[in-house]
Amino acid sequence: MPGTKPGKEETEGAMGRENRRSPRVDVSIPVRIIIHDKAGNTALAESTGRISDISRYGLRLTIGQAQIGQWHIFYSFQENEKQNLCLKVQAEGTGPGEIPDFELPVRPVWFDRRLSHPGKPFQLGMEFLCEPAKEVLDWLNRMIGEGRQPQRSSWWARLLGR
Questions:
Q1: Burial class (CB in 10 A: 0-12, 13-18, 19+), 54
Q2: Which residues are 62's β-sheet partners?
Q3: Core-most of 21, 91, 141, 149, by most CB within 10 Å?
């Protein structure tokens, strides 16, 4: 398709066409949000949220409040040299389709507020600061391969039945 970049997934979003490095998988996974000192030895603050979608390079996090302790989850972690942000998932099941336990350092790259939803939650795009463990990548590959990634199309294509 003209205008697309090799290796990028094309999706239609509210703001128009987006290019992604990797397909996203829609999920609903509870997560602990932990703010550590830079050495990672001390947890300074904690909260909870939910992963709404995940890819090989990052995820979308939904949270009720943007403030965790004294830190704003987006602004406090832009070029922060003293603390880091980590997400921890604990698996609820052990079957082959279940997501494994993982903990990853992340960096927020965008945030928005969903004013039309009850509670007006915040959404944040989080970039992984290191590659996820092999088990997590294997799980993502299985999810994508099973077709659990919803097919998105433009309103024009849906109108024409394509």
A1: buried
A2: 50, 123
A3: 149
Condensed to tens digits (0 to 9), the pLDDT of residues 74-106 reads 999 988 888 889 999 877 665 656 777 888 899
**To the nearest whole number, what is the mean pLDDT of the chain?**
76
Q: Which segments of the chain does DSSP mark as H helices, in order?
A: 134-145, 155-159
Largest CA distance in the chain: 56
Q: Which two tokens stand for residue 143?
A: 């999810």
pTM confidence score: 0.71
CA–CA gap between residue 77 and residue 135 (Å, rounded): 27
Cα distance between residue 63 and residue 99, in whole Å: 20
Residue 151, both tokens = 């097919």
Nearest to 101 by CA among 52, 27, 29: 29
CB-neighbour burial class of residue 72 (10 A; exposed 0-12, middle 13-18, buried 19+)? middle
Q: Which whole number is the average pLDDT over 17-22?
A: 60
CA gap 134, 19 in Å, rounded: 25
What count of Cα atoms within 13 Å lies in the side-chain half-sphere of residue 116?
A: 0
Q: Which residues pair with 59 in a beta bridge?
A: 54, 126
Bridge partner list, 122? 63, 113
